[in-house]
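REQUEST FORM: STRUCTURE PREDICTION
Request ID: SP-0412
Submitted by: Lab K.M.
Chain count: 1
Length (residues): 296
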Amino acid sequence: MRIVVTGKSGQVVTALLERGEVTGHEVIALGRPEMDLNDPVSVIRALQAAAPDAIVSAAAYTAVDKAETEADLAHAVNAAGAGAVAQVAKTLGVPLIHVSTDYVFDGSLDRPYVEDDAACPTGAYGASKLAGEQAVLDIYAEGSAVVRVAWVYSPFGSNFVKTMLRLAGDRDVVSVVADQVGNPTSALDIADGILTVASNLAGSDDASLRGVFHMTANGEASWADLAEEIFAVSASRGGASAKVKRITTAEYPTPASRPANSRLDCCRIAQIHGVALPDWPTALQTVVARLQSATV
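STATUS: Completed
RESULT:
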């Protein structure tokens, strides 16, 4: 299957390119300068020229804190841009998988969020991503699956795992927030899940395959828990390690608030699409091993 993904350098995009080769799918990444989500004409031209069998809408404005002062730009990319991609997918009559985020929720629940829970973003980034979901479903609900992911890390780009390994090489103690909890998820596993969803959508008109789905790794952790596991895995392989000092969100203020609870319930995508991502500690070992091998 010929799958076109928006964006060129993101973690999910890079993982899709890698996993596409392994699974036999032709994955093509489109981004600037030939396609700019701020320019609907370029979106139409580039996607139509690529002649996809399916489209993955992965490109996004992801600077969570900066979005507080660039809300218009975040909305233009994450909402209007997503809508433009959906319109092309509808015109071409091909399935669309739109990648969204846990930030559409405010994190106030005491349990994992299900797809039908009310969205209530607390910041500009989350609001722009929610608007993107709505645009996709308003334009092309009959052909789209919105997939919410969370706490993404990988061997690629900038992410929490790479930051922790770098800090462990510089200091003995690292302060990490312990009162935010979520599902750490490898972009490699997300890519495998997306490819399965794309194949399912292309192979069936079943309406239940469309709509909103949560897709994260199995198991939960706080950022401090994740950091401790990163250091433990690294140390077991002879790499850098550090002690974690557990701190509160209040002790690490940021321009944009983060959900205290980012846990997503993934039963629906398991039941309908047959997608169940691995336990996060297992996936983490793979990523840490690759990162350490790359530095040897």
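NOTES: The mean pLDDT is 96.
Reviewed by: T.R.
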